[in-house]
Amino acid sequence: MSEAAVDPGMIALFGTSADPPTCGHQALLEGLLQRYPRVATWASDNPLKRHHASLELRTALLAALVAQINNPRLRQVQQLSSPFAIDSLERARQLWPAAELVFVVGSDLADQIPRWKQANEVLRRCRLAIAPRGDRPLQPELHAVLERMGARVELLAIPVPATASSQLRRAPDPEQIPAAVWPLLLQHNLYGLTPS
């Protein structure tokens, strides 16, 4: 889909563990804002992941990143948060009944989609936009599986730095964490960090 073909009624939906938010999350959100007229994000509990901070703290971390980006077309809509994509989509449909919903996932999580609760129904109700992760590109065979399941797949050409929350939990690096997020990590002693 070309930039000119983007429907002004589209909303990109990006749920993330935000455990912690990284410069990769920031680049993705900023890239989505260049591609879609509106972007909604939220901190989520992925049932296929182990989280290292509470949902409440991860929500606050993501809020700091959204405030740093400071774009009125980007909203943190925490009520979309659910362990299941189908629930998030149903909530989004209630909020924006006329919008075309675009559900955004990283290519590193795309292999989980066939195992999602009501995966076929999720894919029927939205477009699926897959953001690149340099270390885990979308495999052609998985792309084919998703399309057979009914997915309308869009591969996003958004340059995302190779930062991973899991790596930053092991070795926090202030250069890979958005400036507005770092003070909260220290304030809450997250991931073994303590104020100096």
Polypeptide structure, described:
Helix content is 34%, strand content 16%. The chain has helices at 23-35, 55-69, 85-95, 119-125, 140-148, 165-170, 182-187; strands at 10-16, 38-43, 74-76, 100-106, 127-131, 153-155. The protein is globular, with a radius of gyration of 16 Å.
What structural keywords apply?
alpha/beta, about 200 residues, six-stranded parallel β-sheet, about 35% helix, 7 helices
The level of helicity is 25-40%
Order of helices and strands: EHEHEHEHEHEHH
Please give the oligomerization state of what you see: single chain
In the sheet with the most strands, the strands line up as: 3-2-1-4-5-6
How much strand content do the residues show?
Answer: 15-25%
Number of helices: 7
Q: Please state the CA-atom Rg, rounded to the nearest Å.
A: 16 Å
First-residue to last-residue Cα separation? 49 Å
Low-pLDDT stretches: 1-5
The whole-number mean of residue pLDDT values reads 88
Structural class computed from helices and strand pairing: alpha/beta
Instruction: Sum up the overall morphology in one term.
Output: globular
| Strand tally | 6
What is the makeup of the main sheet? 6 strands, parallel
